[in-house]
Design a protein that fits this description.
Number of helices: 11
Largest sheet: 8 strands, mixed
Oligomer: single chain
CATH class of the largest domain: Alpha Beta
Order of helices and strands: EHEHHEEHEHEEHEHHHHH
Helix content: 40-55%
Radius of gyration: 19 Å
Number of strands: 8
Number of domains: 2
Strand order of the largest sheet: 3-2-1-4-5-6-7-8
CATH architecture of the largest domain: 3-Layer(aba) Sandwich
Distance between the termini: 50 Å
Amino acid sequence: MGIEAVFIVGSGLMGSGIAQVAAMSGYKVKMHDVSDERTTAGLEAIKSSMGKFLSKDKISREQYDQALANIVLTTRLEDASDADLVVEAVFENLEIKKEVFGTLDDICPSDTILATNTSAIPISSIASVTGRPHKVAGTHFFSPVQLMRLCEIIRGIQTSQETMETADRWARSLGKQTVIVRKDHAGFLSNRLYLPMVMEAIRALEAGVASPEDIDSAICLGYNLPMGPLELTDMTGVDILYNASLAIYKDTGDPKYYPPPLMRHMVTSGLLGRKAGKGFYDYTGGKKSS
């Protein structure tokens, strides 16, 4: 199956990033959200991101203009009726995703692949509301999508080999390197490995073991990583990683994934990281400070 028309559900950080790399790779993209204000904000984020590439001569003006011409905004899920591939990038909540996939299943042709950008929820749970579980797969991109090279391709219990191969080819056509997750379990591969370190870093902060700066420095300098777990959590979104870790805990019952109280209190208080201006660090001055 060939992919030409791509429909993105969600125009936030992840959705707009996926839409951008798809449009820059020559795909016809429809980017959806629930309001014109949200889709417009997503398009402005794409323009800003591509503008940075343009200013650094990483893309030409022609490439910039063509990518924008490849993107259409919509608030109608019904506009997915001609899509070859749909990528869902909405809030990390199983019931919301089920609602979206149930609606898409009624709208899209039977051969349309329905993919989810979930970072932790089992694919089979999302696919269960459709009549095409063999056509549902995970395409887990990483933030910022425009820069991060990895995309996890995740097989649900009933995902066909053809669907996996098509999703893998598509992700690689965007310039991504892929890893194939052969068994459907919460957290997949990357988050299954990484989130215990994030939870332990937050527990260390909660216990007063060290400051956020020193916790992050210990990981960056000791293990040669470009960013520490607390700063990366701020960049990704405290709420995003909270929900991802909780999803893995609910699936496995393993206590190492249970979010610490500090993380829960930050989410309920709106301290969600960069997007909120404050998280483990303060960003209200325009750059990170303690």
